[in-house]
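ENTRY TYPE: paired fold submission
RECORD: A
CONTENT: sequence, then structure tokens
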Amino acid sequence: MKIFLAAPIFSLAEREFNSKLAGELRKKGYEVFLAQELGVLDSSDNDIKRKLFKEDLKALNESDIVVAVLDGMEVDSGVTFELGYAYAKGKKIVGVRTDHRCFSPYEEVNLMIEVPSKIVRGKSVEELAEKIDNVIGE
């Protein structure tokens, strides 16, 4: 099964967390696409941007499921695009939260992300990978 791991990739902490989570999912036998492994955008070259965009969409189209890191008060804008695209394509979505902050008193994250997602919480990447595996198996 192919997992598209949608996650912010702009800080070292984010990239390290993403790598650890991808590693745990791979240990469980999943094929995981993680955009940061293509390289973090460090150029204003439009051809490079288009190439990364196309590779991202290709991986989304080929994925069976999307696992999205939803930490923070607001979900990363790139992740929200990927989630909307995945939903439009009929992909199953699992949201991952390690952050105890909520979007509002009524929503864990914005309802446009919360409603189509099965959200799991965990305190370690191992716990999260186990919960993701359980949701995929449902």
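RECORD: B
CONTENT: sequence, then structure tokens
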Amino acid sequence: MTCGKFFFHALALAVFGLLFASTSFADNAHQITQMGHDIVVGQGQKTGDLTCFGCSIRIHGAEVAGDVTSFGGTISVDDQSQVDGDVTAIEGNARVEKYASVAGDLTVLGGQLRRDPASHVDGDVTSMGGRGWFWLILAAPFALLGLVIALIVWFVQWIRRPTPAHA
């Protein structure tokens, strides 16, 4: 199996595992998890955690009593919207409009953060723009593992090297 195929299969398995874990413990009446279909929470609606894989989340004048997470999509928290948890966009953008409120942290990794000065965020605001950060963070453990394996192979070959015969 080539390195590219291995990486693709490992990433697909991780995403599928996250999706399964999110949906298996979710209270279907309050939490929404989607893959490839945008989530829109409209005016006056209340919901729990929102999780989206390869899609976008739009909160328009609604209340989210949980976390909002998007992998590969945009999160929009429009005017008068309230999020009681964290807002996290990975490989996507986040926009927090005027008079919107986020009770937890606001994190964007591998995208752009647009935040109106009149919005309110109680937690930390972290933005690591650019697509390179995501791949660097994802690849670093694999690179470290590769170095450890290379060191072990070198050490085993060093131990097994033939000794010169003495005359």
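NOTES ON RECORD B: The chain has a mean pLDDT of 82. Residues 10 and 165 are 48 Å apart (CA to CA).
STATUS: closed
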